[in-house]
Specification:
The protein is an alpha/beta fold and about 550 residues long. It is built from 19 helices and 18 strands. Helix 13 (about 360-370) crosses helix 14 (about 375-380) and helix 15 (about 385-415) crosses helix 19. The N and C termini lie far apart (about 50 Å).
């Protein structure tokens, strides 16, 4: 990654002065070798990498260990002296990636250092920045895995455009998302679960209180995340305790699926507390004290083996309602929004799609049985003539396409600028293995980290075509952070979604268009509405030939 930094830091001063008034005229001066920032949380020493100052592994909350496990994050008292911030903190505990590496999984990386003492963040800041826009990056990984220290998330090139990049860790898996009656009973709010979300909120509070010391504008913070990070963005938009901690939001491949209710079974899910109690029984823990006494790694691996599903919990306090309901009520954060997804989301995650039936007739028969009066509309969008592609597109749209369009529609209804995109780009190494536009494939373009991808990621050529697309995406994203309007030098205007359904297609070059996948949103909205009315069906990847029989039409879905 250091070699990439050397190539990318070609003159942050010129870029900053040209693109952002947030950088002062002093930007072109040479920064000190070991920058020290005196923040309210305490003093930290980082490293100077060209014109970018980097601070790694800064703790934003007390370690959630022992008696603090499964509690809201506790703020840290200001530390004394100068804290060394030259090395990343450990990743939060997560299942081993060894099996994924052995299977050449495109997302698998070499194992990272892990610990329950993981609530840290990292900062990339232009030297001498003043009131610069701030990006808070939330990593993906299904709320099970991932880390802010992954090489693909290096913030150098984004920071070279005059913005400050903050990447955060948050508790994962059973340690971050467990609900239990005993945990609810000890909570002053009477709730449990959502500890990972509370970590994200605490990190945003830390940013608001401290980022000005690094040259950032606490009133101009954009939250952004991909996959589970995109889901986290929606949770933060829906969560009352997060209100006022960010000014803009970006959700990349987020999924607005149904989730647990804390106390009751709903939408085909057990209650959050019942799900947690079932897990406690599988590890033979008679009470909360026994669970807290267990080794964190042991708990994490046991939860993975038991297929524990980490998700947010509707508790009336941290998450007041299902995400669809929050956005229907217009109760989400009223901020400018960008949201989008990738054309080949499921090409790299085929475990989320059902097997292709033995014949086109069988496929059509299943669809007609499951979708009833909506079968004709379904088959027009996802025909039997190419079953494999139809199955991939069905699950993509049900999880990601519908979510992205729903977010921008609902945000536009609040009068907020809203922008929709699809990443439909490929290059030879990607297309050769049939992964065109796969899930997360936009990330090296956003961060400019072509040489920071995992070992089995299709190698991105450093060609003029690929670097132009990366520069365009960086331009659109960083201008949105500054002004709430995505623009990129030398590239077409990105129109707001508005009444014409405008969107940006990132193909070989950015290409604005209208009415993405006609009929897709209307169909999936009707499907989800009927499931909500029935109250006993989830909406997630159970789509197409994997769907349960669709409930009948309802007047509530008009």
């Amino acid at each position: 990654m250091n070699s990439l930094r050397g190539m990318l830091i070609w003159g942050a001063a010129a870029a900053c002065l040209a693109l952002s008034p947030a950088c002062s005229a002093e930007q072109g001066t040479t920064p000190e070798a070991d920058p020290v920032v005196n923040a309210p949380a305490g003093s930290v020493k980082g490293t100077a990498e060209g014109a970018i100052q980097v601070f790694k592994g800064i703790p934003y909350a007390q370690p959630p260990i022992g008696a603090l496990r499964w509690k809201p994050p506790a703020a840290m008292a200001p530390w004394q002296g100068v804290k060394d911030a030259t090395a990343f903190g450990p990743a939060c505990l997560q299942p081993s990636s060894r099996r994924a590496l052995e299977s050449h999984n495109v997302y698998a990386s070499e194992p990272l250092p892990q610990s329950e003492d993981c609530l840290t963040l990292n900062i990339w800041a232009p030297a001498h920045a003043s009131k610069a826009p701030v990006l808070v990056w939330i990593h993906g990984g299904a709320l099970w895995s991932g880390s802010s220290r992954e090489a693909m998330y290096d913030g150098t090139k984004l920071a070279a455009q005059g913005v400050i990049v903050v990447s955060i860790n948050y508790r994962l898996g059973v340690l971050g998302w467990l609900a239990l009656p005993a945990l609810s009973a000890e909570s002053p709010l009477g709730v449990s679960g959502n500890y990972g979300l509370l970590d994200e909120i605490e990190a945003l509070k830390w940013v608001k209180a401290n980022i000005a010391s690094f040259g950032g504008d606490p009133a101009n913070v954009t939250i952004d995340g991909q996959s589970a990070g995109g889901l986290s963005v929606m949770y933060l938009m829906a969560s009352p305790p997060a209100r006022g901690l960010f000014a803009k939001a970006i959700s990349q491949s987020g999924y607005m699926i149904s989730t647990y209710d804390l106390k009751r079974r709903a939408y085909g899910w057990p209650s959050g507390e019942d799900s947690g109690s079932l897990f406690a029984a599988t590890v033979h823990a008679p009470d909360l004290a026994a669970l807290r006494a267990m080794d964190g790694s042991t708990l994490t691996e046991a939860a993975a083996a038991a297929h524990f599903g980490p998700l947010g919990v509707v508790d009336g306090k941290i998450l007041p309602h299902q995400l669809v309901e929050v956005f229907d009520k217009g109760e989400q954060a009223p901020v400018p929004l960008m949201a989008g997804f990738n054309s080949g989301e499921l090409r790299s995650m085929r475990m989320l799609t059902p097997a292709v039936p033995g014949s086109a007739a069988k496929y059509e028969s299943i669809i007609r049985e499951r979708y009833g009066d909506l079968a004709d509309a379904f088959l027009r969008l996802y025909p039997a003539s190419n079953m494999e592609e139809s199955i991939l597109a069905t699950t993509r749209d049900a999880l990601y396409g519908w979510t992205a369009e729903r977010m921008v529609r609902k945000q536009a209804a609040l009068g907020q600028p809203s922008y929709l995109y699809i990443f439909d780009h490929g290059y030879p190494a990607m297309d050769d293995v049939k992964l065109h536009g796969f899930h997360a494939s936009e990330l090296p373009y956003l961060f400019g980290t072509f040489d920071g991808t995992p070992p089995y990621w299709p190698k991105i050529p450093a060609s003029p075509r690929e670097t132009r697309l990366s520069d365009a995406i960086i331009g659109y994203w960083t201008s949105f952070m500054r002004t709430g309007r995505p623009q990129a030098a030398g590239e077409p205007d990105w129109p707001a979604f508005g009444t014409k359904g405008a969107y940006m297609a990132f193909e070989d070059v950015p290409h604005p268009s209208q009415d993405l996948f006609p009929g897709m949103y209307k169909l999936d909205e009707e499907i989800v509405c009927r499931r909500r009315v029935s109250g006993d069906q989830p909406w997630n990847w159970n789509s197409g030939i994997a769907a349960p029989k669709l409930p009948p039409p309802s007047p509530q879905c008009k």
